[in-house]
């Protein structure tokens, strides 16, 4: 049944044939709004799941460094430390959602009932027929050890690795307001009276995402699957990056190695390139990865994906089906670069009327101009000229964004409500942060879809 609003992408390639990139919805089929006076967004495209290709998940990590036969990972029986969050005896906790490789439920720590004790438990799928027990166990432990080593306000905290009824379970922080995908799908970022989040909210979310990715890159980790579905909101309304199933340790010791002691960013040095192969969701993947012409640095992929997240939040839909010339909307974008680069050999974007490529109507709608120029730097088609995440975070337009979330766990200026002066706020006048209200409005129960989580375990596609 057709629905009003932006149509879901079904592969409108130039030759008129149905594209092999068409994908099925993984959760809701409700439409999202079009951007005002703009026909370039093609819809809020869903995630997908297909068998892992070379260069994805554990296979990529095994090619880039030698993993031990036995990971240094402590685990326990799930029911010894956690209990069902259901009030009904014998009933398992509420199902948050599922992907092709896992099911996620709410559980609670054992002890006196408390809302602070809720956790999200990701139960991994069983072993595939074409993988050995050793490969399967290494994949689970590798993902867990990477996630467990990460500690940042904008990254989901990992709690425990458990076993239950012959299955691995990854216990993590529970983010009660669900995915950013669901919030965009609910039209909460739309312009006009039906929208809930304003420009400042969107910029604050963007800054939190950039800080989280900067932390990852500074510690030798590339996420490789940044998308709305993997960005969650905790009870404070802060953004959290989740799902490290296809993350790559591009520098330093793998956190699962004994030499790393469970920490990331140890003994960092040269950058290890990722093997050819695609992982992630099509609209978010950088062109150099889609081309599969050779090994690639995974960091520019994350930078590209962050820019696509911002565009999707802004316009309620992905700017293109995939960053491939056969798709009309990306072809328009690429044409702008192809016409601009020959007269700007250094490829550097600067202020001024001819300081950046003209990439179509969509980009003409982005304001303020410094943000538009920054996004174009993040979407440079040449990965070696694409801006780094550190330079993005340190750019004046990002530094000037008021952010409600601390930059790190050592930052004392966390969530200061400057509307209520106190001794604490007066001492922090120079470093004060503004308290935003990112908590989404409640939905009627029959329409609740906000607690949808999709977690994959190293799945990509060829």
UniProtKB/TrEMBL annotation:
Pfam families: Pkinase. It catalyses: L-seryl-[protein] + ATP = O-phospho-L-seryl-[protein] + ADP + H(+); L-threonyl-[protein] + ATP = O-phospho-L-threonyl-[protein] + ADP + H(+). Residues 17-26 have a biased composition (Basic residues). Coiled coil: none annotated. One of its GO terms (biological process) is intracellular monoatomic cation homeostasis. SUPFAM superfamilies: Protein kinase-like (PK-like) (SSF56112). Its EC number is 2.7.11.1. Keywords: ATP-binding, Kinase, Nucleotide-binding, Serine/threonine-protein kinase, Transferase. GO terms for molecular function: ATP binding; protein serine/threonine kinase activity. One of its GO terms (cellular component) is cytosol. Residues 90-398 form the Protein kinase domain. Residues 1-43 are annotated as: Disordered. ATP binds at residue 122. It is an enzyme of class 2 (transferase). Belongs to the protein kinase superfamily. This is non-specific serine/threonine protein kinase. It comes from Lophiostoma macrostomum CBS 122681.
């Amino acid at each position: 049944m057709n629905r009003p609003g932006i149509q879901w992408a079904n592969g409108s390639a130039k030759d008129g044939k149905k594209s092999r990139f068409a994908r099925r919805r993984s959760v809701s089929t409700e439409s999202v709004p079009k951007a005002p006076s703009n026909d370039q967004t093609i819809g809020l495209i869903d995630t997908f799941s297909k068998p892992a290709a070379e260069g994805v998940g554990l296979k990529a990590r095994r090619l880039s460094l030698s993993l031990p036969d036995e990971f240094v990972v402590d685990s326990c029986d799930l029911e010894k430390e956690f209990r069902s969050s259901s009030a009904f005896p014998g009933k398992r906790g509420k199902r948050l959602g599922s992907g092709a490789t896992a099911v996620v439920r709410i559980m609670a720590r054992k002890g006196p009932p408390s809302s602070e004790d809720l956790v999200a438990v990701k139960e991994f799928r069983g072993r595939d027929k074409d993988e050995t027990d050793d490969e399967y166990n290494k994949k689970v432990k590798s993902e867990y050890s990477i996630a467990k080593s990460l500690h940042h306000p904008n990254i989901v905290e990992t709690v425990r690795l458990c076993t239950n009824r012959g299955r691995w379970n990854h216990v993590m922080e529970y983010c009660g307001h669900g995915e950013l995908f669901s919030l965009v799908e609910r039209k909460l970022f739309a312009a006009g009276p039906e929208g809930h989040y304003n420009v400042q909210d969107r910029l604050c979310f963007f800054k939190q995402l950039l800080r989280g990715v900067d932390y990852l890159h500074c510690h030798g980790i590339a996420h490789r699957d940044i998308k709305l579905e993997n960005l969650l909101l905790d009870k404070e309304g802060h953004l959290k990056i989740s799902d490290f199933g296809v993350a790559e340790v591009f520098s330093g010791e793998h956190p699962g190695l004994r030499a790393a002691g469970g920490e990331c960013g140890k003994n960092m040095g040269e950058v290890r390139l990722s093997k050819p192969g695609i992982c992630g969701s099509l609209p978010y993947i950088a062109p150099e990865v889609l081309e599969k012409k050779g090994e690639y640095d995974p960091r520019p992929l994350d930078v590209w994906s962050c820019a696509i997240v911002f565009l999707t939040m802004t316009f309620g839909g992905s700017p293109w089906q995939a960053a491939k010339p056969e798709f009309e909307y990306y072809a328009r974008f690429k044409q702008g670069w192809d016409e601009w680069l020959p007269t700007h050999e250094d490829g550097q974007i600067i202020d001024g009327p001819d300081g950046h490529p003209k990439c179509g109507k969509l980009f003409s709608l982005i304001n303020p101009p410094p943000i538009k120029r920054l996004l174009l730097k993040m979407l440079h088609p040449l990965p070696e000229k694409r801006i780094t995440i550190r330079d993005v975070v340190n750019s004046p337009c990002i530094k000037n964004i008021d952010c409600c979330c601390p930059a790190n766990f050592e930052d004392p200026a966390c969530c200061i409500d400057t509307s209520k002066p106190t001794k604490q706020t007066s001492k922090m006048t120079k470093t004060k942060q503004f308290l935003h209200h990112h908590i989404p409005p409640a939905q009627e129960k029959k329409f609740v879809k906000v607690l949808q989580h999709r977690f994959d375990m190293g799945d990509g596609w060829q």
